Predict the structure.
Amino acid sequence: MIYLDNAATMRVFDCAICAAENVMRNEYFNPNATYKSGVAAHEKIEAARRVIASAMGVFPDELVFTSCATEANNWVFNSGIKNKKGNIVISAGEHSSVYEPAMQLKSKGADVRIAPLRKDGTVDEKALYGIIDNNTALVSVIHVSNETGVINPIKSISENIKKLAPRALIHSDGVQGFLKTNDTVSSLGVDFYSASAHKIGAPKGIGLLFIKRELNIAPLIYGGGQERGLRSGTQNTPYIEAFASAVQEFSRLCESSNIQSIRNELCECFTAQGYRIIGNGNNSGYILCVCVPGVKAEILQNIAHDDGVIIGKGAACSGTKRGNRVLSAVGLDQKSIESCIRISFAVDTSKSDVNNAAKIIIQAAERIRSEHVG
Ligand code: PLP
């Protein structure tokens, strides 16, 4: 089976499995216990936090572990801006874990404004700056689109927002961006950044929120005071270890990865077939959104699966309807959206696998078309 739905989730690295297993079998102590083994477990969490912080270019005490990025994103919109008054601005390209909390606030009377996307998939910066004002409390713009792989220029966007609205907090959903672009989090100039471990080779169920040092954010969960009192609950030590281990492995593999050129070649191959690449601008090498004219993505996905290739269509963690929200914001009509597949790579996806997958996808699409015509 050739697995090309890595933006949905990635295979867990062996080293991450070993790291989690070791904690579960041998170092299972409560990291908040005061005896030596508990203290050692706590120190392992802090060492893991240092590894991840270093990969992000931030201070370890700026990272809070959460159960997933959805939790981290919700935190920003709820207790994250609890005491701040003013309007909230998001882009139309946000994942549902940002869009829905924003809509929840809107339903309770908040002034939520949405910046449109350009045809290339990036946020329309002119329109974005047009709806930001002195009274803006929070701006959230996704780093790398989970639908199209397009990279938003968060660094310059943050700089411009700070000029227009010096009091506004800036959040970026970094789930598809963390370790997958050349930017470090510190270089982006944001106040919040969320990441998820299962997109980089660690298990599902662990994520984090970067919170800039000087910010005084309200806790997400009250209780025993873990995570500096910000997110109570006994820490998920096996998965935190696995997260750090995956960060190290992903970073190591990145050094020899040629994923961007594999993606570019696949683009050329599909373009030659008359397929349309969606959001082809400044893209992450990890995600390719393609419209296969005259073919329903769902059917193509199923046939490709039977032929040994797993691909995505829209956002895996949302219904098709919500996945369409972003693609329609890019300007696609319903028929084109229904023909969009999402191919996404792991850091170690091989060129030969991608070439074979391309042949299978093209043949499957031809079969679907001929069956429909015939
Ligand atoms: N944000 C983006 C851009 C995503 O792609 C995803 C998952 O697909 C999430 C947030 C949610 O991450 P998690 O599964 O850790 O909740």
